[in-house]
Amino acid sequence: MIRSKQRSYEVLMVFNPNTPDAALEERIKKVEEVCKAHGGTLDKKEVWGRRSLAYTISNYKYGLFVALNVSGRGSLVTDLSRQMKLMDEVLRSTVMTKNQYSPDLDGRLKGDFTYGYRPTSNAAASSLDPEVEDPDDKLDADLAVVI
To answer: What is the dotted CATH code of the domain comprising 7-121?
Structure first.
C-alpha cells in the first residue's frame, strides 16, 4: 500500500460580505470536520474581515476573507474544494500547496503587506543623501544657459 505524506496547504475563502458571524464560524467548522475526516488538521485560522474585491463578484464589491492553514493528504484537497463549492456563502476559494519557501500568514494580516511595497515620493526623497549632487540637475542648468 502506498501512503502519501501529509502536506501543508493554505486555503483562502472569500465569503459574501453579508454573511453573519455565526454562519461564518459554522462554515469554518465544516472545513475543520472535512480535515479531520481525512486525517488532517486545521493548524491556523485567520479571519481578515471585510475587504474590497479587485472586481465585482455576483454584484458584490466587498468580501469577507478567511485564510486557513491545513495539513493533510491529497484526498483532503479534492474533498475540501468540493465542499467549498457547495457552500452558498463562498464567492471564491482556492487551495494552495505550501512549502518551506512560502510566506506565512502572520505578515499578511490587517494589510501589513511587505512584498510589492513602494515608498512614497517623500520617503524616497528623504532617503537620498542631500550632499550628493544629481548629475541631471547640472545638465539641465547647462542647457538652460545655452538656450
So the answer is: 3.30.70.60
pTM for this prediction: 0.66
**pLDDT tens per residue, range 57-102:** 999 999 999 999 999 888 888 999 999 999 999 999 999 888 776 6
In whole angstroms, give the CA distance from residue 46 to residue 81. Answer: 19
Q: Is 58 left (phi over 0), alpha (psi -120 to 50) or beta?
A: left
User: What does the domain layout of the chain look like in residue ranges?
Assistant: 7-121
* Per-residue model confidence as pLDDT tens digits over 10-21: 999 999 999 999
Instruction: Output the nine-digit C-alpha cell for 20.
Output: 453573519
Taking alpha carbons only, the member of 60, 62, 45 closest to residue 11 is: 45
Integer Rg of the chain from CA: 24
The closest alpha carbon to 109, from 5, 18, 12, 9, belongs to 12
Q: How far is it, in rounded angstroms, from Cα 24 to Cα 12?
A: 13
Element (H, E) at 143: helix 135-146
Cell of 5: 505524506
Whole-number Å distance between alpha carbons of 6 and 27? 23
Amino acid type, 76: L
